[in-house]
Amino acid sequence: MLLGNSLLLNLLSLLYLYVQNILCEQFHEEFIRPDFCTDKVLVSLESYLTQESTSVIQCAARCSLDNKCLSVSYRETDKTCFLNFGRLAYDCGNGVTLTDTVYYQKKDSVKECMNNGTLVNNDCVCYGGYVGTYCERLMTDCSEGFSEMYKDGKFGLYEVLPPGAPRSFKVICRMKWGGRSMILRHFTHTYTLNRTWVQYLDGFDHWPVATWIGLDTLYWLSRSKTSDLTIEFQKKHLPPEFLRIVYEKFKIGNSSTNYQLLSAQLNYARSTVNVTDCLFGLIGSAFSSYDMDNNRVPGLGCPLTYGGAWWYNGACAQCNPTGNLYHNPGGNRTWVNDEVFWEPFDWTPIRVSMWLNN
Ligand SMILES: *[C@@H]1O[C@H](CO)[C@@H](O)[C@H](O)[C@H]1NC(C)=O
Ligand SMILES: *[C@@H]1O[C@H](CO)[C@@H](O)[C@H](O)[C@H]1NC(C)=O
Ligand SMILES: *[C@@H]1O[C@H](CO)[C@@H](O)[C@H](O)[C@H]1NC(C)=O
Ligand SMILES: *[C@@H]1O[C@H](CO)[C@@H](O)[C@H](O)[C@H]1NC(C)=O
Ligand SMILES: *[C@@H]1O[C@H](CO)[C@@H](O)[C@H](O)[C@H]1NC(C)=O
User: What positions does the domain Fibrinogen C-terminal occupy (predicted)?
Assistant: First the structure.
């Protein structure tokens, strides 16, 4: 009798362990602790049922039986099981976080993409500059957009939110070579970049003929990351010939300084030719347009005679990338002040491009 009793007990405890094992396996198959919410737990999710459970596994098993249950919260201190209608989407939320409560959600609960993202193979495909698992935030710049989501190799208009910026900005990105922000593009002899301060401040866009990013956007983009500024001149169409100048550690001041050029280091090795370090002499200068001449040496009228807007210092500059393209494009320099040039080159390009990599 005694033997029989302990045999029965043994069998029962084996059966119990067996059932526990199955429950545990089912639990891990069906539930997940989302990686954005492992160490803290939100309980402001609406629970439709609260009951006592011996473990989170038992709590989840109850949820498992119910289609309308998408997640469980389990308070370990008093073994309370909450069955929730909803589930967390992309963060732990702003609700009360309790360290004694764990949270699990059903793996197959439908993922919802935010900001017009679409679900493809259970991944959110985002648009317009949104990134993240759920398209929940804007990219900080084109490089981040490229590494996170956008890799079509094309030019596109995106919304970016640089760290610390008070608002988002529209930026034309080239989603290739790591992602670039287009600062300037000038590609026709009929269009002039001799424009007002307000236009240089806000930016202008006549894609694909001409575009300028806007000074505030340029400031925010170059503020928080080490940025390279690349300036490229196309000499002629066929075969295409380019002159490329790469500046590292490009930084400008904010509007209070009139977007003073703070730093720019010419990298000869990454440039295609040995050019004059034009920006070196301009460090410390504010940005100027014809109607807002911030040259420290007054009365020279650099933007007026150079026909563009740039950082000018004293005797203007040894380069004029925002000048006019109608003076013999693709041919020899004509030596007028308002043509596009970069010393010591004696030819006029047909196109100027400028971009930021960060
Ligand atoms: C999503 O699409 C709607 C309808 O086209 C549009 O009104 C809305 O601005 C879009 N939202 C975003 C974040 O792009
Ligand atoms: C520009 O930056 C300086 C120093 O960080 C700050 O004091 C000033 O308020 C800023 N100006 C604007 C317009 O944001
Ligand atoms: C570039 O050219 C100048 C003038 O010819 C020369 O003094 C300088 O050493 C050159 N720099 C490099 C990096 O080749
Ligand atoms: C630039 O525009 C201003 C205002 O229209 C004008 O006075 C100036 O002559 C122009 N400069 C060039 C080089 O075209
Ligand atoms: C351009 O300049 C080069 C020398 O710098 C000269 O040989 C050539 O004839 C010039 N071309 C024209 C069309 O003037």
Answer: 133-358
Q: Report how far ligand 3's centroid is from the alpha carbon of 248 (Å).
A: 18
Please tell me the number of the ligand nearest to residue 323's CA.
4
Residue 313 Cα to ligand 4 middle (Å): 19
Note the residue count of the chain: 358
For residue 238, give the amino acid letter: L
Helix (H, G, I), strand (E, B) or coil at 49: strand
**Ligand of minimum distance to the alpha carbon of 223:** 2
pLDDT digits (tens, 9 = 90+) for 19-67: 888 888 889 888 988 877 766 666 567 788 999 999 999 999 999 998 8
Alpha carbons 241 and 345: distance in angstroms, whole number = 13
CB-CB contact of 58 with 46 (8 Å): no
User: Which residues have any ligand 5 atom within 6 Å of their CB?
Assistant: 331-332, 346
Identify the band that residue 93 occupies on the pLDDT scale cut at 50, 70 and 90: low
Residue with the bigger pLDDT between 112 and 172: it is 172
Cβ-based neighbours of 26, under 8 Å, separated by 6 or more: 61, 64
Q: State the pLDDT confidence band at 133, using cuts at 50, 70 and 90.
A: confident
Q: Please tell me the distance from the alpha carbon of residue 304 to that of residue 131, in angstroms, as a whole number.
A: 43
Please return the burial class of 198, using the count of CB atoms within 10 Å of its CB with bins 0-12, 13-18 and 19+.
Answer: exposed
